[in-house]
Automatic annotation (TrEMBL):
The keyword Membrane applies. GO terms for cellular component: membrane. It is found in: Membrane. Its main location: membrane. This is Major facilitator superfamily domain-containing protein 4A. The keyword Transmembrane applies. It comes from Danionella cerebrum. InterPro entries: MFS, MFS_trans_sf. It is a multi-pass membrane protein. Keywords: Membrane, Transmembrane, Transmembrane helix. One of its GO terms (molecular function) is transmembrane transporter activity. It comes from the Eukaryota. Belongs to the major facilitator superfamily. The chain crosses the membrane at residues 21-39, 59-82, 94-114, 167-188, 252-281, 293-311, 323-341, 347-369, 381-403, 409-432.
Amino acid sequence: MKHLLNERICGLFRSNWQHTLTYWSVFFSFGLCVAFLGPTILDLRCQTHSTLQEITLKLLVLALAMAVSGLAMGIIDTISNLQLVKIYQKDSTVFLQALHFFVGLGALVSPLIAEPFLSETSCVIGNSSVNTSVLWDLRNKLAGRHVHNISNVPLHTQGQVVTNVSYAFWIMALINLPVPIAILILIYRERLFPCRSDPSRRLLDRETSTMKTWGSTGLSDENSQQTEYRSGYSDLLSCCLHSNNQSFPPSFFWIHILGGLVLFFSDGIVGSFTGFVYSYAVEDPLNLLHKTAGYLSCVFWAAITIGRLSAIPLSYRFKPLRLLIISQVGVVLTILLLLVFSSSSVFLFLGTCCLGLFISSIFPCMLALTEDILDYRGCATTVLVSCAGMGEMLLQVVVGSVMHSQGSFSFLLCGLIFGCLGFVFFVLHYFVQVNYRSYTEALPGNCPVEQHEENGIKTCSGVVLDSRDASEHKTSMIP
């Protein structure tokens, strides 16, 4: 059975490899860009002859560039997740784990590209120099987006610029160059250029019409084995209507809301931990050296990357719900232990690693689970991605404000509160989705009374209810 599962997933990948590799490469580029600005911002200040306050509040041109970049990243995040869910449906967990692995890989590689070109001392030569340890402290604060209490650092704006940071930006541009080329090739292959005779044709239409299912006899058209793909993607209002034009129950909307809240807090923990773990480590009671504390963010992102890589084979064996339970419990317990052993610098590194491992797969598993519950209508992906982005943005502001007023110890306390709230909303999400499944089974055509199991396969009037079980069942019936 496991061999058949792997064979089917490999078959699905072979039939959609160009789309999948393109989305993965886009997310790798996404990760590179997300983590690149922080370490280079001091040298970028020298290039623009700006004060530290001006560069952290963003110059007009830089602010416009960052706004365009943020808009593009939001579109990339939403579309890539949405398209992989539509292509692979019940098998999307594996490919979503790989997709988010490439984000972590890009974020991990990005500082390594910039490191050789960063100035060890002040990159503008003036009448006095800035201590190297002060610059290291500033780089780590800015890399974590912690920009409080930096006005007292004397950095020159006029003088000879001695930075080579422009080389790092050129290298980054060259690494990212194949990504838009791959996208253009995909657009050309799908005949999506507006100058063609059929400009209304969309990539989604192409993907849904050519989706393949891997069964016992190999690849075959989905139209011959499954019902026609739902038309719920045609417009926004159709997301709120069932196939027989009946409105969904309140549980349908609560699944979106609760799923979004789970990711709001999980991605909020990722953003706030990355942004403020350095500031927490260099203050009482740990008082770590600036250089030592700077490794915490690297350890955290490395753990997230390893966690997402290890979750790819785990997704073959376990359903998203089981992985989510382990991840949610692990996040809460890890932050709780960090609070208990708050005076131990060794456990801070160990806890940072464990937190990254547990929290790494929450987003892709929650996305796959929610879309599976809602029968892959595609609407949940946009809601979940938006909520995750808002959590990463807003909870950093909350943590920064609380730490500024209450002290560094409140950093872990905020993390524990966020983790507990995320777990509570996850439990509520589970009970709501049980209620929603009961509703959908009671709809006309789903015949819950006639539903029974035959050789371990759930059927309803002879129709197999699970496409994954269907392929395995068909194989088992071959003599």
